[in-house]
Each structure stands twice: as C-alpha cells, then as structure tokens.
Amino acid sequence: MDQAVNENFVDAAAPVVKDAGPWAHLPAAAPLAMPVQDFNRRIELAAKTMRRGYWVPRAAIFAGAAVLTAAFGYELFGILAFAVMTPLQFLFLILSTISFGWIALGSLSGAIGFLPLFAGERADSVPVPRSDDPLTTRTALLFPVYHEDPTRVAGAIEAMSDELRELGRTGLFDIFVLSDTRGDLDGAWEARVYQALGAKLRAGDARFYYRRRLENHARKAGNIAEWVGRFGSAYENFVILDGDSIMAGQTLVTLAQAMEQDPEAGLIQSVPRLVGGTTLLQRLQQFASNVYGPAVAAGLSFWHRDQGNYWGHNAIIRTEAFASAAGLPDLEGRKPFGGHIMSHDFVEAILLQRAGWGVHMMSSLEGSYEGMPPNIVDVVTRDRRWAQGNLQHLAIVSQPGVTAMGRVHLGMGAASYLISGVWAMSLAVGLVLALQGQQIIPSYFQDSKTLFPIWPIIDPGAALRLFLATLCVVLLPKGLGLILELKRARIAGDWIHAIRSTLGVMYETVYSMLIAPILMLTQTVGSIQIFAGLDSGWKAQKRDDGALSFEDAMVFARWHTAIGIIVGVIAWTVSPGLLAWMAPVVLGLLLAGPVSWITSRRAGWLANWVLGTIEDRKPPAILVATEARSLEWAKRLPGAENAQLLAEAA
C-alpha cells in the first residue's frame, strides 16, 4: 500500500484513518462495510436460520436454583420469624436469599458441567474437527495492543507463527498487531520491535502487519471495527488475541476448521487456561482456573449451547457475520452509562445471536492460554473497568432488539458486580439486627387478648442446618473440581498429584475466603462510584513486576481494615458467638493489607508445590517457545528506557 492510501484511507464503512506510521508493510485495501446496529430494531429470522431453544438444560439450571433458593428462604424465615417479622428482618431475609440464589445458580452450572467431564465426554456446543480435516479459508490473527510490552507480544507471535509453519498452514493465517499505544516514545520502541519482527517473519514466508492509530476512538472495539472496515473482506475469519494471549498452532487450525465446517457459526470461544504466574495471587488464580474452571466452562457450554457468550479474546469470529451484525452504536447520555460500549464482547455476542449466527464455546479445546494481574491492587483496577462495562449493560438489557438469552447474559454480567453490594448490605443489616436483639426489650405479648407470652426461641438446629447447606453449595464447584483431579490421578496412577490437588484445594480455599471480603468491599464501592457518574478511564494492564511494598498494601487496604475493626468490635459487643460466625468476613477485612502484600510476592516453594498445575510441571511446547522468544527479543531490543534513542532513529 502506498503512503497516500496508508495515511488517508476512506470508505463508506469507516472514517478517515491516519496511521502513526509511515509503515511500508500493510496489505492491499479490502474494505468491508460494518453498519451500526440499532438495539430498538427487532430482527425476524427465517425459519431455516432460527436457533434451537435448548430449554431443557436451561430449565434444569434455573429451576434447580429456584428450588434451592426457595428452600434457603423458607429455612431462614423459620429462624427469623418467631412471631411477627419486622421490616428489618424482612430486608435481611430478602438480601440473604438473593445472595444465596446467585451462588446456587453458579454452583449448579458447574455441577451440570461436571457430569459429562466425569463420564469422559465432551461438553462442546460445536463438534471438534480432526487435525487432518481440510482447511481452505483465510484467517487473520489480530493482536489489539495498548501499551503492552512489545517484546513479550513479539515472542508469542513468533512462537505461534513457528508452529503454524511446522503444520504447513502459514499461508492461511496472516498476523496483525493493531496498536492503540499513545505517545511517540512508547510508539517508537513498539514500532522498532514489530518492524524487526515483521522482517524476520516475512523471511520465513509468514505475513505480518503492524499499524498504530493516531485516534483510538472506542478503544479496543473501535480498533477491531477499523480493521474490519479496511481489510475485513480479504479474510473469512479472524481470531482476537490479547497482549498476554498465547494459542498453539494446532488450536488455531482447529478453530478455523470448526468455523469452516459449520456455516452457521458466527463465533467460537475457546477457554484459555491461566499460565505464567509467579506471584502467590497468580498461582492461586491459576490453580482455581485449572482445577475448578473446566466444570464451570463445560456447564456454560452445556446450557448456553449456540447462544453463548464472548470473552473478548482467544476466540475465532466469522468476519462476514461480525461486520454485518455486530457494529456497535454509541449509547446516549454521559459516561459512565453513555458513550462507547466498554464491555463490547458481551454485546457483540448478543448481536450475532439475534442475527441468527451461532455463538459457541469449545470448552474441551486445549492449547489456549492467557496471563493474569500480579496483585490484588491490579485486579481491583481491572475489575473497576469491567464493573463499569457490565453495569453499562443495564442501559441495553431492556431494549426490544435484544434476544431472551441476550438479556440473561447482560443481566448476569451486571449482577456479578451488584451481588457484592447485596452481600455487604445483608451483613450490615444483620449487624443492626444483632444490636437490636441486645439493646431492645422484646414484647412477648403481641396482642392485648393474648393470655400467654410468645417466647423468642431460635432453633439452633435449623440455624446449623442452614449454615451447613449454604457451605455445601458454596464449596460445591471446588469439590467437583477436586473429584475430577482425583480421577485424573487415579487413571494416571499418580498419587502424588492426588495429594497435591487435595492440599491445593485446601490452600486455595483459605485464601479465597480471605480475598472475598476485599473484593466485596471494592466492588461495592466501585458500583456506587459508577452510579454516581465516575468514569474508570482506560489504563494499561499490568502483566508482571507486581510486588507491593507493605506500606502500599496497607494504604490500599486502609478502609478495609477500619471497617473490619468496626465490624469486629460490634460483633464482639453483641456476643463472642456472633464474632465467631462472622470471622471469615472480619478476618478478610482486618488482614486485607497483609494478604494484599503477601499475595503480591513471589510464591514460595510450598505454594508452588501444592498449587502447581500440569502446565507448570510439564509446560506445553508453545509456552516454552514463547518464553524463549520473548527473552531473545528483550535482549535484542531492551526496554522503553531507550525510547528516546529509538524515536530519533525512527
């Protein structure tokens, strides 16, 4: 592409585009219109393209959760209402029942996914092709980046390209780095790395392209839409990969084959495993994802079927479907609810669904990986952005052009953050009730005609039953994940793995109980800020070097600690038994600073041993190659500290 076209490309589907180049290696223009969609417009599908409802698994999930929730509410009502229920007691009943219902829904989803996995079956919503199946379609691998370490991304790209070349599939996959990095200095370093990478890959017959936008309108979603408008018609499919995404060559080929074999599939989502963690928090997240995650993912695949969700990366998308059906409008109003759609992936999946395209999950597919934030502070920063995106969906969920399953996805996404506020409110109301029970003299004669008093007797057996039942539901996904690991160990005859998995579940459970109150408070505050109109902004994701100083960790957790002290004192004032009952929450808040500090540091030998995953002990070839290539690029073109020299050289 010549310089004039490169810097001033125009077509009906896209605004004027000016690259931060000039770049000598961009493909020929292949425009594809991507019209903006209207959420108010209903789409009537032809009979042949109507998707099946799959009402049986969905009814099983929601009916089962409803039964469990009703049983919980009934038991709690019996404990609270010894005579006449007060408004505060009724509020506590409602809040606690909602919290339990959310947990029950997630646990039952994991239980349904556990069944086929335990039976040795696949739970994918689309058939998995054989490795020798034919493949003729062209696929673009898109890496939308924003202030990512280019040497890390370059290492992953080179390793993936090498595997595709070994499979003889290089000619069917083109690679694009789509940069939204701001600033000439960072841009110069980035450009230098990717230009060198491009020269190396092109020498091996791979096609690699890099461009950086001057105006990063609509962030990642706008970045992808701009690529579709400029180059989309040249590719039947594209795969979205984040800055920390890695996918094996055969995994990419399998996704492309599956898309080619199902002409009604619009998107196929893989389930990436968390890898590469070094801090204790990353190890905990990796263990939970790899042990509990398969059953949860299989459950989602089972009841979502071809009306599934999209997680924004490590997925293949049919370009024609995406361009024709998934153009995102800007929402009316001011931020954080107005403007461009932040959590665009959920919405794009829904737009594909309503146009009749299948949105699938291939949960059994291996070879898909991603990283994770190194400490709780960075988790909270990312979580705040995700919360805003998910709560923004409340402006879309009631629109007439959204499908029934789409409303479920959007509603559950928003509820995943609102539920923290519900939990926090239930704890606050429970404390007030406890104080009232201590300070207020009860009235034992509720009616002037009553001759005998009504004694406020609480059945301790019912309270214990309710506690144990709740604990079982909460811990069910962990128990099912452990059963699958024990089965794997039995088949392999690896009893060391069985011991490690058991200890790992115990280790992770303790830390998850301590971390849960921290996230409860930050998500509650974040939701309040969002409803108050505070925007989260767009910060670059931190991938490594996550160690916090003890002072920084305590500053971050100062409000957690203060609230923990207040709650603990109130509970102790009421009764030591109440403090013991609330100990997990109180300890989580009191220890928020030390826990944030400890989990940000490198995992010790014990954590590495009990939390080690299969990928840790026997790293797949693609992960080994990615690490080696990334180190080579870092040595060859070290760090942004040379950005000024690189800018002058450019």
Give a short synopsis of this structure:
By secondary structure, this protein is of the alpha/beta class. It has 24 helices and twelve strands.
Report the total helices. Answer: 24
Strand content: 5-15%
Radius of gyration: 27 Å
N/C terminus separation: 20 Å
Overall form? globular
Give the overall pLDDT as a whole number.
Answer: 87
Given as residue ranges, the uncertain stretches (5+ residues, pLDDT < 50) are 1-16, 46-50, 450-457, 643-650
Secondary structural class:
alpha/beta
Largest sheet: 7 strands, mixed
Helix content percent band: 55-70%
**How are the strands of the biggest sheet laid out side by side?**
5-4-3-6-10-8-11
| Number of E strands | 12
Describe this structure in words.
The chain is globular. The two termini are 20 Å apart. The protein has helices at 3-7, 55-80, 87-118, 150-166, 184-203, 219-231, 249-261, 280-291, 293-304, 319-325, 344-354, 376-392, 404-439, 460-492, 495-531, 550-556, 558-574, 576-581, 583-590, 592-600, 605-611, 614-617, 621-636, 643-649; strands at residues 9-11, 14-17, 139-145, 173-179, 207-212, 237-240, 246-247, 265-270, 273-274, 315-318, 358-362, 368-370. The protein has a 7-stranded mixed sheet, with helices on both faces. It has a 3-stranded mixed sheet with strand order 7-12-9. With 650 residues, it is α/β, with parallel strands linked by helices.
